[in-house]
């Protein structure tokens, strides 16, 4: 039997029944109702959230005290939530508590566990959390958190928004004169954030206030938070103690210096790679081939396993260890690629990069700037960026997530800042051709397809991750989208291990139930893909990011059956703007009907500002897909 | 990722270290039969992975009341693609844990060993202690240097000590010999000594368990050996344990004859006998005295006094529904408020009697039947997916019910809020069962094999009426649907669609009882509890609304809007009382395709998504096992808009019927109303594989119906 209440989180805490004295006031209830109208998808709202940040010096480090006070109100009928806070080896939670409205402590059981995530094999971060119930609408709790950071360099940013709507958010930073702190403001545009700066004694007090902050969106395929949400980035440049100025991350060179010190601490033993490099390069006729053999070997044979363990989260694992274990994180894979290439006689270097997910560049000396590491190969005056964590990435092609992003390349005591080249959509182009004739109520014909760049890489990765004994069925299923009316047979493909050549697919297709005959007329639904019709952003709050820039072209030919003439073709749909272009049309050419589709998404992102246009286009597209060809008996 | 639920403390004591060495020797020592095996047969070269050797061991030892239970699994697997490498690339386990069996008195340990064998035969053992990282109580290992073409050879060895002062039954094992990968060789061993009793048997052509006890030893040893086992592939509508080579076993610990009695299983007479089958005599002996008429009949007697019945049959059924309320649904609200921490409810009920188990139900009902001098039998049945009752081996496979021998016998089972008194659970329907004759309402005197009732597709049916109209621009289709479900088709749907608040009030009214909050006298408290309980119910109703929408969307396989659902009858008092609800919803930009001035309506989709058998599944070697016969009756009434005529109706007339079931559809036009009727029914519980073509014939017809379209032609 179904549990009687499946809505509730599993409650493991000691039972404490609510008391009358802490029931919401009439005003609270009225407020909750009002807020719920505004934030219809939220159960809880923060009536206020005050964050106070102060600084100290301890053991030669600048430490940070972060105090948070919040009032949480249930704006739905009832709410059951987890209140949680993360910490790690660089931070500690001193106070994590909830109080009732009457200021009495609510003794919810606090759990303290390792942070577990499917994406991370191991992280040193831990989470404290409590399971909190709000029995009625308007019920409130007062929350307080005191958290300490051992080193200011790990306290990088403060965001104004939360998973819950916030009625009033205040961030106060008390910066002592001995600390040179740069406060950078991001994404304030479009928000009314009040800022006050006052000097009080030996401190400068910065106060930021934002009212009516929407909850952070849960949209998938969205830009990283640093690109979207208002926040302040804190850069502690230096501090003065006993009249002595100590530099922290004052400029990018300081960041590099710290990174470099970590890299210099790796005990490398390239000799362990010698035999493998020899094996991989022995039969290679050209440098290109040698590089590919090494780069592809790393892609194919080193399993990506994410570790985040204190300093080790910033220091690459020694290449010989990654090689021996055949697994590593991005830094380990970059380091192995570098050492193997060096072993083969090339100039290869470690390279820090912030992926597309991150909204900063290397003008900012902060640990928030990057989140990834790759390897740069210097060859014949050119630089190649090799990302060992990619799968089926062809040398010289770059994944969307690193394109156009700044890289910091090691260069002895100096560093080089460059940008990863940006490729056009055409690099990832997919092309399909179908030729069909009508056989009873079916369309029978052949389809051939062609994939390049990231469309090819993602196809190859998907295909090669499937169990051997299921590959054939899975490929058929993929090609037919699991549509029972779409029978696929005699599939011939190019080599599905080759990431450099054109990927081609050819197969026979029978599309059932696409032809309807009524009286003297035949209606033909010639569309079997309905490309892009699923990208409807009516409910979306944030920009949509495609996995990569898209270009897609298809031509479907229908042979007009003998004795019939075309009496109606659906109207074409065409749009072109700076963001995207869509051109879908039908035309009769002799005894054939040509159904042409062309889609171009110029950058991989559809901005929120373009949603109105985009959604209108998708509606037109759906209407067109819903339309049919009319053939009439002559 | 392979997660094995196995706890921790880093204090690796010397004894544990010694144990670890011994464990390793056990699997990978000089007697390892698979030591040199690194090649797999040609026929399995295209498999994702091949199990070269699988070894499962169950070891039961005791010293007085202290039991040491050791279970272990070793697998040596050739990994032939990236998918299998990924699957075996990470392990996680708990090194130490407390037994949850009987009385855990000292920690149990898990020992794990992993080695990787390269294609050239070189072996590398993973240093588990060095490689593992620890998060809370779990250890995790990422396997180093594991590549396609390698063999991973690992064992999990669990030593679980506990104390048992009386009798203890270990978890039963029921599994197919085959696994998700083909197996070259497998060996299962059981090791026991006195005071351990084994029920073990193999079925459907699986190899027999053989005794291999060493001579002159008090230890008993048994083995099941199999080789060349193809991987499992479970088709639709299939009961693997009924058809595939499989084995079942359960071990009991009982220190004396008295405990053997109370063990709760069908123990062999002696420890040196492996019990392979539970006979009718065993069942008779076991159940003699196991159930006894017991329970306070006060409530029932009061109920009887206040009601009259047309027959004994009617009386039994009504008392059943009464007890379902009195000892079950009356307390549902209490459980809810307790879980939601709204209040402590139990003080309000005086001495609440709530049935927690089948046994409480049976005993109480027996007391009632005895009191009423109604003849009844205790029925011992086994769900059909376990195989026939004649092959019964495990107590856990048994369901017990009562048969009241009224003119039409009434079968009664421990209830859920929805159980009907006139239909038994579908999994035991149409199966052979044992009837234990109860003489004079007391003693079990005899046993006979009976057939449990069957139900037909006429009993288990849905009746749906869908009213369809269009907006002027044909972009919106407005739908109103009335649904009534009968028999077993109600079972899952009632549970999916109803929350406690949808049925408790009905019971309070019917039986004159009070809802929980009616018991609360304190005005302030009552107000508070009411507010909180209402808040909870409102929240659940919002959730329910979402579930309703998701449910209909999965039924039709398209999105709907503005969906409302109202339950009009709960269907909780008899298989023939329908579970009914009315829905209203709209569908936008679907179902209607433009064709110039005309419109093509995908009328077939209005009967809901139908099963489609993929081409590769059209051939079938396994027999077909259905939960129960059933019929889906759909009536779609479409209002043809003014100015349009309809054509293409001929395609909507389909008829495929055979002994296994059928699909019949018709379309008739009366005025501007087009009525489409479709019935799909499955006539039987079971069909041999040879009849698969008959089943697919009507399934295909129903699927094809969903693809049919009609033309709405502008006049």
UniProtKB/TrEMBL annotation, chain A:
Xref: Pfam families: DUF3857 (PF12969), Transglut_core (PF01841)
Domain Transglutaminase-like: 277-351
Sorted UniProt keywords: Signal
Signal peptide: 1-18
InterPro entries listed in its UniProt record: DUF3857 (IPR024618), Papain-like_cys_pep_sf (IPR038765), Transglutaminase-like (IPR002931)
SUPFAM superfamilies referenced in this protein's UniProt entry, alphabetically: Cysteine proteinases
Highest taxon above the source species: Bacteria
Gene3D superfamilies from the UniProt entry: 2.60.120.1130, 2.60.40.3140, 3.10.620.30
Entry protein name: Uncharacterized protein
Species: Flavobacterium rivuli WB 3.3-2 = DSM 21788
UniProtKB/TrEMBL annotation, chain B:
Domain DUF3857: 73-229
Keywords for this protein: Coiled coil
Transmembrane segments: none
Coiled coil ranges: 519-546
UniProt-listed InterPro entries: DUF3857
UniProt cross-references to Pfam families, sorted A to Z: DUF3857 (PF12969)
Superkingdom of origin organism: Bacteria
Name this protein carries in UniProt: DUF3857 domain-containing protein
């Amino acid at each position: 039997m179904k549990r009687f209440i499946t809505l509730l989180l599993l409650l493991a805490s000691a039972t404490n029944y609510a008391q009358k004295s802490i029931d919401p006031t009439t005003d609270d209830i009225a407020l909750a109702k009002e807020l719920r109208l505004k934030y219809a998808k939220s159960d809880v709202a923060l009536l206020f959230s005050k964050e106070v940040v102060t600084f100290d010096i301890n053991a030669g480090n600048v430490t940070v005290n972060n105090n948070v006070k919040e009032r949480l109100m249930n704006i739905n009928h009832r709410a059951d939530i987890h209140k949680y806070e993360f910490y790690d080896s660089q931070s500690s939670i001193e106070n994590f508590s909830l109080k009732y409205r009457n200021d009495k402590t609510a003794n919810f059981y606090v759990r303290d566990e390792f942070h577990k995530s499917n994406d991370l094999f191991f992280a040193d971060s831990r989470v404290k959390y409590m399971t909190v119930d709000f029995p009625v609408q308007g019920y409130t709790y007062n929350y307080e958190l005191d958290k300490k950071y051992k080193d200011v360099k790990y306290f990088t940013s403060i965001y104004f928004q939360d998973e819950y709507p916030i009625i009033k958010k205040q961030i106060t930073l008390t910066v002592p004169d001995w600390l040179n702190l740069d406060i950078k403001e991001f994404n304030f545009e479009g928000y009314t954030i009040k800022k006050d700066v006052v000097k009080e004694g030996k401190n400068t007090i910065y106060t930021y206030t934002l009212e009516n902050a929407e909850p952070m969106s849960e949209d998938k395929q969205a830009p990283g938070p640093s690109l979207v949400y208002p926040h302040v980035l804190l850069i502690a440049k230096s501090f003065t103690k006993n009249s002595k100025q100590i530099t922290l991350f004052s400029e990018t060179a300081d960041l590099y210096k710290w990174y470099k010190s970590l890299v210099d601490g790796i005990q490398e033993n390239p000799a362990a790679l010698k035999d493998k490099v020899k094996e991989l390069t022995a039969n290679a006729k050209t440098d290109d081939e040698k590089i590919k053999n090494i780069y592809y070997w790393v892609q194919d044979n080193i399993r990506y396993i994410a570790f985040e363990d204190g300093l080790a989260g910033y220091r690459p694992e020694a290449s010989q260890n990654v090689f021996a274990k055949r697994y590593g994180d991005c830094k380990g894979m970059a380091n192995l690629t570098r050492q193997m290439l060096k072993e083969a006689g090339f100039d290869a270097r470690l390279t820090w990069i912030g992926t597309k997910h991150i909204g900063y560049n290397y003008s900012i000396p902060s640990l928030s700037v990057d989140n990834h590491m790759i390897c740069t190969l210097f060859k014949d005056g050119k630089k190649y960026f090799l990302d060992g964590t990619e799968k089926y990435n062809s040398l010289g092609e770059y994944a969307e997530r690193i394109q156009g992003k700044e890289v910091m390349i090691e260069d002895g005591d100096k560093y080089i800042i460059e940008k990863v080249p940006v490729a056009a959509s055409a690099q990832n182009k997919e092309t399909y051709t179908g030729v069909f004739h009508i056989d009873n109520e079916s369309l029978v014909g052949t389809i051939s397809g062609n994939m390049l760049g990231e469309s090819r890489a993602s196809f190859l990765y998907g295909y090669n991750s499937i169990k051997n004994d299921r590959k054939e069925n899975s490929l058929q299923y993929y090609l037919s989208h699991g549509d029972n009316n779409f029978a696929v047979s005699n599939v011939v493909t190019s080599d599905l291990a080759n990431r450099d050549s054109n990927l081609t697919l050819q197969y026979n297709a029978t599309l059932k139930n696409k032809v309807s005959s009524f009286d003297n007329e035949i209606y033909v639904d010639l569309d079997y893909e309905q490309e892009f019709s699923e990208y409807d952003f009516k409910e979306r709050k944030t920009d949509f990011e495609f996995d990569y820039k898209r270009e897609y072209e298809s031509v479907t030919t229908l042979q007009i059956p003998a004795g019939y003439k075309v009496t109606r073709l659906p109207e074409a749909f065409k749009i072109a703007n700076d963001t995207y272009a869509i051109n879908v049309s039908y035309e009769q050419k002799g005894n054939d009907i040509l159904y042409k589709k062309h889609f171009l998404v110029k950058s991989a992102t559809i901005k929120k500002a373009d949603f109105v246009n985009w959604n209108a286009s998708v509606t037109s597209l759906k209407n067109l897909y819903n339309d049919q060809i009319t053939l009439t008996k002559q | 990722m392979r997660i094995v639920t196995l706890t921790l403390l880093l204090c690796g004591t010397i004894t544990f270290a010694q144990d670890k060495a011994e464990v390793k020797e056990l699997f990978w020592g000089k007697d390892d039969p698979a030591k040199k095996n690194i090649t797999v047969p040609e026929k399995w070269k295209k498999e994702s992975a091949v199990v070269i050797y699988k070894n499962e061991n169950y070891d039961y030892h005791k010293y007085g009341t202290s039991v040491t239970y050791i279970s272990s699994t070793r697998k040596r697997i050739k990994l032939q693609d990236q998918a299998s490498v990924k699957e075996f690339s990470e392990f996680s386990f708990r090194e130490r844990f407390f037994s949850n069996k009987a009385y855990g008195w000292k920690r149990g340990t898990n020992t794990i060993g992993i080695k990787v064998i390269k294609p050239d035969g070189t072996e590398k053992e993973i240093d588990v202690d060095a490689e593992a990282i620890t998060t809370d109580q779990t250890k995790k290992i990422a396997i180093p240097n594991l590549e396609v073409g390698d063999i991973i050879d690992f064992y999990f060895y669990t030593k679980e000590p506990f104390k048992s002062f009386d009798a203890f039954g270990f978890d039963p094992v029921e599994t197919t010999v085959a696994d998700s990968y083909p197996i070259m060789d497998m060996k299962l061993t059981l090791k026991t000594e006195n005071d351990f009793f084994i029920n073990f048997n193999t079925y459907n052509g699986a190899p027999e368990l053989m005794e291999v006890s060493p001579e002159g030893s008090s230890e008993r040893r048994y083995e099941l050996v199999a080789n060349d086992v193809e991987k499992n592939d479970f088709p639709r509508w299939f009961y693997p344990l009924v058809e595939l080579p499989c084995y079942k076993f359960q071990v009991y610990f009982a220190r004396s004859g008295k405990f053997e009695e109370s063990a709760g299983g069908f123990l062999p007479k002696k420890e040196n006998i492996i019990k392979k089958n539970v006979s009718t005599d065993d069942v008779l002996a076991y159940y003699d005295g196991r159930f006894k008429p017991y329970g306070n009949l006060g409530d029932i007697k009061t109920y009887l006094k206040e009601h009259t019945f047309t027959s004994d049959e009617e009386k039994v059924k009504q008392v059943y529904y009464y007890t379902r309320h009195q000892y079950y649904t009356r307390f549902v609200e209490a459980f809810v408020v307790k879980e939601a921490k709204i209040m402590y409810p139990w003080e309000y009920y005086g001495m609440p009697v709530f049935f927690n188990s089948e046994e409480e139900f049976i005993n109480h009902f027996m007391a009632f039947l005895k009191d009423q001098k109604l003849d009844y039998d205790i029925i011992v049945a086994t769900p059909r997916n376990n195989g026939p009752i004649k092959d019964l081996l495990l107590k856990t496979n048994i369901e017990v019910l009562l048969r009241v021998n009224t003119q039409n016998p009434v079968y009664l089972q421990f209830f859920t809020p929805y159980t009907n008194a006139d239909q038994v659970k579908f999994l035991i329907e149409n199966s052979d069962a044992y009837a234990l004759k109860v003489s004079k309402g007391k003693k079990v005197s005899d046993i006979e094999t009976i057939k449990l009732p069957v139900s037909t597709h006429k009993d288990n049916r849905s009746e749906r009426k869908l009213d369809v109209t269009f907006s002027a621009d044909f972009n919106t289709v407005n739908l109103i649907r009335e649904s009534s479900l009968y028999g077993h088709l109600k079972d899952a749907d009632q549970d999916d669609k109803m929350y406690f608040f949808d049925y408790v009030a009905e019971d309070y009214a019917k039986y004159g009882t009070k809802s929980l909050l009616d018991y609360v006298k304190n005005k302030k408290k009552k107000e508070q509890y009411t507010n909180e309980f209402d808040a909870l119910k409102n929240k659940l109703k919002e959730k329910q609304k979402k579930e309703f929408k998701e449910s209909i969307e999965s039924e039709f396989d398209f999105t709907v809007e503005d969906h409302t659902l109202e339950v009009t009858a709960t269907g909780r008092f008899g298989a023939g009382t329908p579970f009914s609800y009315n829905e209203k919803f709209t569908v936008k930009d679907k179902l209607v395709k433009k064709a110039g001035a005309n419109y093509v309506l995908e009328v077939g989709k209005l009967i809901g998504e139908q099963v489609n058998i993929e081409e590769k599944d059209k051939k079938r070697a396994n027999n077909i096992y259905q939960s129960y016969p059933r019929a889906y009756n759909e009536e779609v009434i479409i209002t043809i808009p003014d100015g349009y005529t309809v054509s293409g109706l001929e395609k909507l007339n389909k008829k495929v019927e055979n002994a296994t079931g059928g699909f019949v559809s018709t379309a008739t036009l009366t005025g501007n109303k087009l009525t489409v009727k479709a019935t799909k029914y499955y006539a039987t519980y079971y069909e041999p594989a040879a009849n698969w073509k008959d089943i697919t014939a009507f399934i295909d017809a129903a699927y094809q119906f969903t693809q049919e379209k009609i033309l709405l032609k502008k006049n």
